[in-house]
Design a protein that fits this description.
The structure holds two protein chains of two kinds. Chain A is of the alpha/beta class. Helices cover 38% and strands 18% of the residues of chain A. By secondary structure, chain B is of the alpha+beta class. The chains are: A alpha/beta, B alpha+beta.
């Protein structure tokens, strides 16, 4: 798993939470451009991607990484509610959305459609 | 009568004698078949020249017309049976007339040549005519050429070949000179402003007449006994020449005729004028559709139009789009500036400005008030926009700061909760803390939405209103005939109109539902929120609707609340999309 978020505190907590749940966190990135680069370098299975990044938006990262076979499942996260983005999340091509405060192994597994790590 | 007019009268009488005398000499000495009717073109030029000198003393065209009369009747005086006269008559008299005519045409209407090209063309025409005259003067002996009626000539270097060659060269060059002349006229037309082109209309008529006369010259002959048809053509040329000075004179005096329009302006301004109509009156009086009036701001170095909108004065330039600025002043202070076609007569413009002086002063005051109102409105708009920008900034700060920290805290609590699963008391406390945190986050999210909804920034107005409708306690139907983004201030104002209207309906209307209709028409966003409640909404009561009205009006929009006769309320706002 790769975590792309510009808040170091959140990244640390998310990494600890997910690793405790059995996920392997292979990398982190603090902005959109380095997120795209790390996705290409590390080829993670799942990307936890913040929508609001300092350089480009999470939606643009999804567009540049692309979807389909061989591409990671991207889960968008934000401290805002999904309703604040209207239908943009559906149209983005990401696997799903989780509010940051709701992030857990259970919600992640629900979005990814599997039992978990 | 002034001394100048006496002088002109004397000149006129002298030249009348010159023309009639010349024609008498021509008839009685050389061509008895000729008529005094041939004097008419000369008389026409003479009369036009004298009138032009009287009415337009600073314009050289009057003198050029007089010069044409003097030169063209030299030929008639050349028929005198005395030495030298025939040589001068047949050389200068017959050669220079056309050059002066071209000079009149190209210097019309200002009386001076404007460009180097025009000066070059006229210089070449005079040069060719002068050289031909000189060759004829020195080498032409009409008796040796077979003219039995002609007087003896003291040609210093008699040479039939030289005369024939000079005439042939002048004829060939004449074709090129006509083309150069037409090119100069065409360039004048191309560079003229719209009003200037109207002024040049007589020139085109004159050019057509000159070309026609030149063309007829190939078939004309002044000797009726040799070729009857050619003589008729020659007479017809004379008649056409009569029209030339009249055409030019009409053009020159048209400004004087236009001055009568200033009189009409005075009468028109005597009645109260609707605001902003002065410009239209001046356009009519001066015949310049492009004329604009700019008014000086009080104590400021700026200009506004009649609507109070700032405008600048044009820089000096040439060509088709050239503009001239005529200042209207009172006690040395600028009152207004008339921006007009440079071809307009300055005297006429000043006369019109003087006639409209009082109206200009009144219009300037009105424009000043409108400019100040516009400044107040623009200031209100800036305040509203600054408020919206501040709302967006606060919402972003909440998102980037408190919401992020609370989200991180929620994750920490979740982890602690997992670790404390074995201790029910601690687990319960942590669950309680997490629930409190979720509640705090929800409230903060609502607060942020109220300040500025993120979905409005992210997705635009229709999506934001849909989200608003989804969260409403009442069933709300949203109709929108567009999906594209509008300017941020427009979206924000429209959103808050809908939000406030729906909040009011929920609180007071006792309605079973509401309809929000968003549509765009001719660059205006129309927002309509209708409910089926009890009605009774009033803009004058409560600060919510009043605040909305202020925001909408600040961007030149309109806002009204109607209590429907069938029950319910309709809130309407129209917001210009260029706000």
């Amino acid at each position: 798993m790769l975590i792309v978020d510009d808040h170091p505190g959140f990244r640390a907590q998310a990494r600890a939470l997910l690793m405790a749940a059995g996920y392997e966190v292979v990398g982190e990135a603090a902005d959109g451009e380095s997120g795209v680069r790390v996705v290409r370098d590390l080829a993670p299975d799942v990307v936890l991607l913040d929508i609001h990044l300092p350089d480009i938006t999470g939606f643009e990262v999804v567009q540049r990484v692309g979807g389909g076979p061989g591409r990671p499942a991207i889960v968008l996260i934000s401290s805002r509610d999904a309703s604040d983005y209207g239908r943009r999340i559906e149209r983005s091509g990401a696997r799903g959305f989780i509010a940051k405060a709701e992030l857990s192994a259970r919600t992640l597994a629900a979005v990814l459609g599997g039992p978990g790590p | 009568m002034t001394r100048r007019r006496w002088g002109l009268l004397a000149l006129g009488i002298a030249l009348l004698g010159w023309v009639i005398g010349g024609e008498w000499v021509s008839i009685h000495v050389l061509v008895p078949e000729n008529h005094f009717i041939d004097a008419l073109p000369g008389l026409s030029f003479l009369l036009a020249g004298i009138v032009a000198l009287d009415q337009r003393p600073g314009n050289r065209i009057g003198w050029l017309m007089i010069a044409y009369v003097v030169v063209s009747y030299l030929g008639n005086w050349g028929n005198l049976q005395v030495p030298v006269a025939p040589a001068i008559g047949s050389s200068i008299g017959q050669q220079l007339g056309g050059a002066i005519l071209a000079h009149i045409a190209l210097s019309y209407p200002a009386g001076r040549l404007r460009t180097r090209f025009e000066r070059a063309v006229i210089g070449i025409i005079y040069g060719v005519s002068g050289l031909t005259s000189l060759v004829i003067l020195l080498a032409f002996d009409p008796r040796a050429d077979g003219c039995t009626r002609c007087a003896w000539e003291p040609a210093p270097f008699p040479s039939r070949t030289a005369v024939i060659t000079a005439n042939l060269v002048a004829q060939r060059l004449g074709f090129i000179l006509v083309l150069l002349f037409l090119a100069a006229v065409w360039l004048r037309w191309q560079r003229a402003t719209p009003a200037g082109r109207r002024e040049l209309a007589p020139l085109w008529v004159a050019v057509c007449v000159i070309c026609l006369v030149d063309l007829m010259g190939a078939f004309a002959s002044p000797f009726p006994d040799r070729q009857r048809f050619a003589y008729l053509v020659w007479e017809l040329q004379s008649v056409l020449y009569i029209s030339l000075p009249i055409i030019f004179l009409w053009g020159l005096l048209s400004t004087r005729l236009a001055r009568s329009a200033v009189g009409d302006l005075v009468i028109e301004l005597d009645k109260p004028l609707p605001p902003g109509q002065l410009q239209a009156c001046l356009v009519r009086a001066l015949g310049d559709p492009s004329l604009e009036v700019a008014y000086a701001r009080d104590g400021l170095h700026g200009w506004v139009d009649a609507e109070g909108q700032p405008r600048s004065l044009p820089e000096p330039s040439d060509g088709y789009r050239a503009r001239t600025v005529t200042m209207v002043e009172r006690d040395g202070q600028p009152l207004a500036a008339l921006i007009h076609d440079p071809a307009l007569d300055q005297g006429l413009v000043h006369a019109a400005a003087a006639a409209a002086g009082m109206t200009i002063a009144n219009e300037r005051l009105q424009a000043e008030v409108r400019a100040q109102l516009e400044e107040v409105r623009a200031s209100r708009q800036r305040i509203v926009e600054a408020g919206d920008a501040e709302r967006r900034r606060v919402e972003r700060n909440i998102h980037d700061g408190a919401q992020q920290r609370m989200a991180t805290l929620a994750l920490s609590l979740a982890m602690l909760r997992d670790r404390a699963a074995a201790d029910p008391a601690i687990a319960a406390s942590l669950d309680q803390a997490a629930a409190e945190l979720r509640q705090a986050m929800a409230e903060l999210r609502e607060l942020a939405r109220g300040i500025h909804p993120a979905i409005l920034t992210e997705e635009g107005l229709p999506a934001a209103v849909e989200a608003l409708a989804d969260r409403s306690a009442l069933p709300v139907r949203v109709l929108a005939d567009f999906d594209e983004r509008l300017p941020e201030p427009v979206e924000a104002i429209a959103y808050f109109v809908v939000a406030e209207a729906l909040a009011n309906i929920t609180k007071y209307a006792r309605a079973s539902g509401a309809i929000v209709d968003l549509s765009r028409c001719n660059g205006t966003l129309r927002v309509k929120v209708t409910d089926d409640g009890v009605g009774g909404a009033d803009v004058t009561r409560g600060s919510g609707l009043r605040g909305l009205e202020d925001r909408v009006c600040a961007v030149r929009g309109s806002f009204r609340v109607e209590n429907l006769s069938a029950g319910g309320t309709c809130v309407r706002a129209e917001i210009p999309c260029d706000a």
